[in-house]
Write a structure and sequence with these properties.
alpha+beta; disordered N terminus; binds zinc ion; 17 strands
Length: about 425
């Protein structure tokens, strides 16, 4: 039996596309490879014209109006930092692509820019710098969004789509949030106003500004272009923008909808061990588990007593839940084992490997962040602030691919993982987040 080394054990770091940070801040060009590169560089006259063809932008009280970060002489236009970031945020809106229509558009379109300018009918954005505070608003005059910019606004802080909340240079957000604010305010221009106290919305199904903002992030996380929506540096991992977008979708839904009426359903994912094969297996399918008890998967299988919770149904799972793919080693080509992954890229990659047969989506869980932390869900504003916690699931690998005998174990018990690491199993980190 031949068996190829499983490819996903080799995780390449995200390519360092912006070598030493040189160039992009001043070079005008089109079609950069990632959203951050587009946000950092100076827009071309043609790109500026494409924004101006549908929107009239005005800037008041810009304290750095005379400090040009882009110039016409260098192939762009004379722009202050605020102007550059405002235009680049709107150009990012133009460039975002989705593999499914945005669910609040009518007629359905996957173009956020077309929805914003043609359906929500926004024809102007008035940026106004404030040394105090103030809320952005819409729509006075009609079809115009008023954006209040302060020293702690993302427009004042960063050229990045998103930053990590505690990492280097992190502000807990970025120009993606500015874009989300545009989307929120544009929904008001379609006649949707806040229907609950505190500027919140009563229900999700009314599809008001908060539901739309949550769905915007959900679409960024689950229907966007992962090759474009990735950090320009590797300090937060390659998937952070998608992972954080899902977290934002859930956070905004759970904190801004007064009577969402959601119910979360979780089931046990039950672990088995085969004393002959020395393999582990797990299933959340009750019928399958009972079948294994009765020998349906062959001899020597028994329950270990370990289990963790999963969401069986996306309709009763939080917005940041992600499908988990299951694979079986192709008989004659792969190991007598199953493999599970929540990483969409990893799932797509393993599907290409003839040694593994895709068995489908088996349940839904929350994907860990690059730093192996697990986000919560169902956050409720306080006081008291509450949320539903998640538990980290560790993956261990028996390192027996060379023998055609690969097997992975998934455990929430760090002591179990430590003991197994001394027995030749390789710790592969936190791969799933389980609801408690
Ligand atoms: Zn609002």
């Amino acid at each position: 039996m031949s068996y190829r080394h499983v490819p996903w054990q080799i995780r390449l770091p995200a390519m360092c596309l912006l070598v030493a940070g040189i160039g992009f801040a001043t070079i005008a060009g089109v079609g950069a490879q990632t959203v951050d590169q587009d946000l950092q560089r100076c827009p071309t006259p043609a790109e500026l014209a494409s924004v101006n063809s549908r929107l009239s932008l005005t800037f008041a009280n810009d304290p750095q109006a005379q400090v040009l970060v882009c110039t016409a002489a260098a192939g762009s236009a004379n722009l202050s930092l605020l102007k550059k970031r405002a235009y680049n945020s709107l150009l990012a809106m133009q460039r975002l692509t989705f593999d499914a229509p945005l669910p609040w558009t009518a007629p359905p379109t996957a173009s956020l820019w077309d929805w914003f300018t043609l359906q929500a009918n926004i024809d102007g954005i008035a940026f106004s710098y404030s040394t105090g505070s103030g809320n952005s608003f819409c729509c006075n005059p009609a079809n115009v969004i008023n954006i209040v910019v302060a020293a702690n606004s993302y427009l004042s802080l960063t050229d990045r789509w998103d930053t990590y909340h505690s990492g280097p240079g992190g502000y807990g957000g970025g120009l993606g949030d500015t874009l989300a604010l545009f989307v929120h305010e544009a929904r008001h221009n379609q006649g949707y106003f806040h229907t609950c106290a505190g500027g919140n919305d009563q229900t999700f199904t009314e599809m008001g500004a908060w539901a739309i903002q949550s769905l915007f992030w959900y679409w960024i996380g689950n229907h966007g272009n992962p090759g474009y929506l990735r950090p320009v540096t590797n300090d937060v991992g390659a998937d952070y923008y998608a992972d954080d977008a899902r977290e934002r979708a859930e956070s905004q839904r759970s904190t801004r909808i007064c009577a969402d009426g959601r119910t979360f359903v979780s089931n046990d994912n039950i672990e088995f061990y085969n004393s002959g094969l020395k393999h582990y297996f797990m299933t959340a399918n009750q019928a399958e588990a009972i079948g294994i008890d009765h020998g349906a998967a062959g001899p020597n299988w028994s329950r270990t007593g370990a289990s963790f919770k999963i969401f069986p149904d996306p309709a009763h799972a939080p917005m940041n839940a992600v499908p988990v793919c299951r694979f079986y080693g192709t008989p004659g080509l792969g190991p007598n084992s199953h493999f599970f992954t929540i990483d969409p890229a990893e799932c797509a990659q393993v599907k290409l490997d003839p040694g593994w047969t895709y068995e489908g989506i088996v349940f839904y869980m929350i994907k860990p962040f690059f730093d192996h932390s697990c986000s919560a869900y169902n956050e409720r504003p306080g006081p008291p602030f509450t949320s539903s916690p998640t538990t980290r699931v560790l993956r261990l690998y028996n390192q027996r691919a060379a023998f055609g005998d690969s097997n992975h174990r998934y455990t929430t018990d760090s002591n179990t993982a430590s003991v197994m690491a001394t027995q030749g199993w390789r710790a592969e980190g936190v791969v799933l987040c389980s609801p408690q």
